[in-house]
Amino acid sequence: MKQAIHFINLPAQPDPAAAPTPTTAAGLQAVLDNLDALVYVSDFKTHELLYMNAYGRRVWGQPDGRKCWQILQDSEGPCSFCTNHLLADENDKPNPPHVWEFQNQLDQRWYQCRDQAIRWTDGRLVRLEIATDITDRKQMELELHAAHEEARTAALSDELTRLHNRRAFFEFGNPLLSQARRHNHPLALIMMDLDLFKKINDTFGHDAGDEVLRQVSALIRDRIRKSDIVARMGGEEFALLLPETDADQALETTERFLKLLKALTVHHQGHAIRPSASFGITLRAADDQRLEDLLKRADRALYRAKDLGRGQANLEVKNVD
């Protein structure tokens, strides 16, 4: 007896390459229009906006065939920060998506952008961007960064004089020494100590001493180069680190400060105070490994200047065979 064979007609599987049905297209449009992010498509070469979702139309208006840079940035030409060159290779083959953050110049809000080159329905290469507003998060990041920078600045500053403190002198000075060693360039260190400062405090009071420190610090700070480092090392002692400075230049700088100090009168509560200072100078030697090596020589030179009568400068140079 023969078995009966039954054939079952299975429904045909949809062709993945087939165009979406109207229902699918409407659903996709609904998804895109309900995203809380900008989605747009622009021609890779002409920059014409081919599509923008409801979020984008609500914020920037209807595309109306305009260029992406016209509607999104209100500029007169392609954006200088356009990422198209990152999205495809020289053969117009799409690269992996590029994710980045930027602040829109039109609305001043921050966006995280996911840019990608894709093929449009007609086969041409287009730019697809999904941009999510991250302004609140970015503002928190910027405020946190500013707080960290403020704390760091406070940790590296002398509160009274607004100069760098001792910690900052070494943090910023060591790279200058390393650079000078690497390129065999000159580097000068000047130590300055106010003469008989205890007498100023004892005679006129500590408030007067503080005012002297502030005015002397301002005098120095306003007359150094941006590349120089000046720090209050403690008490009435200061250090100046001068890159690209030889002996003659260091002596000239010191003489200038001596003249300025001689002309300085600090007025405080009816008193006229005439501060003076002594200076010790040294230059980087070939075998100097640390800033401490220069500080020791400059300190010795400083105290020789005091022994010789104060209000003057002394230079100590290390000779290396």
What does this 3D model show about the protein?
Helices cover 39% and strands 23% of the residues. It is of the alpha+beta class and 321 residues long. The protein has 2 domains: 16-137, 2-Layer Sandwich (Beta-Lactamase), CATH 3.30.450.20; 159-316, 2-Layer Sandwich (Alpha-Beta Plaits). The strands form 3 sheets. It has a 5-stranded antiparallel beta sheet with strand order 2-1-5-4-3. Helix 10 links the parallel strand 11 (277-283) and strand 12 (313-316). The termini are far apart. It catalyses: 2 GTP = 3',3'-c-di-GMP + 2 diphosphate. It comes from Marinobacter halophilus.
Main attributes?
single chain, 321 residues, alpha+beta, Beta-Lactamase, Alpha-Beta Plaits, 2 domains, five-stranded antiparallel β-sheet, five-stranded mixed β-sheet, 10 helices, 39% helix
Give a quick summary of the entry:
The chain is α+β, with helices and mostly antiparallel strands and 321 residues long.
Q: How would you summarize the topology of this molecule?
A:
Elements: H1 22-33, E1 38-43, E2 49-52, H2 54-60, H3 68-72, H4 84-87, E3 98-103, E4 110-119, E5 125-133, H5 135-155, H6 166-183, E6 187-194, H7 197-204, H8 206-221, E7 229-234, E8 237-243, H9 247-262, E9 266-268, E10 271-273, E11 277-283, H10 291-307, E12 313-316
Parallel strand pairs: 11-12
Antiparallel strand pairs: 1-2, 1-5, 3-4, 4-5, 6-8, 6-11, 7-8, 9-10
